[in-house]
């Protein structure tokens, strides 16, 4: 199941990103979205080193739960970075089919993150509390009022 989710994820990434020629027409939005995705991805990798990082939803043996950096706000910042990055190609292409592919990619990443979260909750007893204070792909809005 894990490998299938990764394979479908990569096929959808290619379907969203290709072909490239229309990008030139919407270059400013493309650059902002692309750069934002790259920056979030880089920030994520600074806090979750390659030895702990896994493209498959299975937690690494000996891995640890990262809750700093972007992980303090988002449980799956690398998936968020990928979606932001890929949205640049959707905007650049200006084609409805790209929106569909992007939404399918979002659905695959939602399922993949659900599988991952089930395993993380079994491996890390503190994961439930972490889930309560962070968003899956976007930061949670604070329910506290400023008085």
Describe this entry's structure for a reader.
It contains five helices and no strands. It is mainly alpha-helical and 147 residues long. The protein has one domain. The protein is globular. The N and C termini lie far apart (48 Å).
Main traits of this protein?
147 residues, 5 helices, mainly alpha, single chain
Helix-strand blueprint:
Elements: H1 2-17, H2 27-47, H3 77-93, H4 96-123, H5 127-133
Helix pairs in contact: 1-4, 2-3, 3-4
Task: Return the structural class.
Answer: mainly alpha
Total strand segments: 0
Which stretches are low in confidence, meaning pLDDT under 50 for 5 or more residues running?
none
The gross shape turns out to be globular
Main beta-sheet annotation: none
Helix content: 55-70%
**N- to C-terminal separation?**
48 Å
Structurally, how many domains make up the residues? Answer: 1
In short:
The chain is built from 5 helices and no strands.
